[in-house]
Write the structure tokens for this entry.
Amino acid sequence: MAEFLMPSLGADMEAGTLVEWLVKPGDVVKRGDIVAVVETQKGAIEIEIFDAGVVEQLRVQPGATVPVGTPLALLRGEAEAAPARPTSPEPVAPTVAPPTAAPAPVAVAPAPLSTPAGLPGERFKASPAARRRARELGVDLAIVAAGPDGIIEVADVEAAMPEMTPQAVKPRFDFAEMRAAIAAAMSRSKREIPHYYLSDTIDMAAAEAWLARVNGDRPPARRLLTGVLFVKAVARAAETYPEFNGLFVDGVFRPASAVHVGLAIALRGGGLAAPAIHDTADLDLDALMSRTRDLVARVREGRFRSSEIADPTITVSSMGDRGVEVLFGVIYPPQVAIVGFGKVVRRPWIVDGSVTPRPVVTVTLAADHRVSDGHRGGLFLAEIGRLLQTPEAL
Amino acid sequence: MTDEDIRSVLRDELGRIAPEIDFDRLDPSVDLREQADLDSMDVLNLLTALHQRLGVDIPESKAAALATVDAVVAYISSRRSGL
């Protein structure tokens, strides 16, 4: 029997509030499945499970706040003999230990404003899938008309979407909490990490021409953004320069075995998150674009996964086309480097001895001087610039 | 489909991306990206939604010119009427 524990999603996290279970006793889960939503200082996080097996028992009810490390559920390993698993969707009382004085679901405290409606125990009858969809869309189940059987299904939730005023779609963030989390991480960074900063200018003519050609005959849904080239180039360069990719923990730098770029994503109304795109260097540009699109959409809705919070090995922050020319990053501890891109600008540039207008971008590196030095940092930035000259090979 | 219908789809889709924006208070002749604080991903998502809902091709080469509400409505209207 394995225990599924309240995870630690950062050194500063002491407790989390279980918002919702996405599994029920009897469900088969595999490593990486999203099984629960937990509200933390960083917002509502979708929690993935690391073991495979069958959910035996849920030990914490939605609404409860418990310390990191508290068992949330019991999991029976696949190899373990299944004790007469009920076939009905409603599991019978668990045969092992009874729930530990868990409050009845109806005793859930009033949901905080930042939490969407649709938690178990409400008066709306809705299928689990419908509740999940409502949560994704930010639809309040109170405005959803149920089907003929009185139960709200996914289609009912989606049908209610167009009638919602934009104000009814609430982000799942507590911005004050997020600001506090950013403050804690950045204060620690500036207190503990001796940053050094480097900057270089990259000719973007080849990348722009290639993007225009590739995007030219694609529908908008399949187009690539410049930022994806930046992220891929950083990931590839980080494979060559491992001292910028990893974590500094307990006085020791531990290089990471894979590159999980943390992508800095600004939120409307303020705030910022930098969740991981796993195995960034192994994704082709189309896959990276769709992962980026998905991640940005989910993060702005306030839905990201526990591994996305915990796993970044280096951060990329890109200003986009309406930003400024140069971005000096602050390292997100315990990472050891952040690469910043300004907006692409047109500047007089010397090509083959002549001055010519050219799209260029300023790339910066803020890196941890305990781990690396400026010489290697310069080579790292030069490698990023070199990779961007052959975008088709990224 | 009238211009008002197109505007209504645009209002709808912009509302998903920038829920706090009051569409009716936007200046239809001023750059939408500036008024609604849209980044390149937001703009791409908006174009994707317009393409999918209205069935109008929006080539990359035209995308940069579709910066205002007026420009979007005029472009889609002209494409739908086959002009």
In short: Confidence is low (pLDDT under 50) at residues 82-122, 162-170 of chain A. Residues 2-76 of chain A form a domain with the OB fold (Dihydrolipoamide Acetyltransferase, E2P) fold (CATH 2.40.50.100).
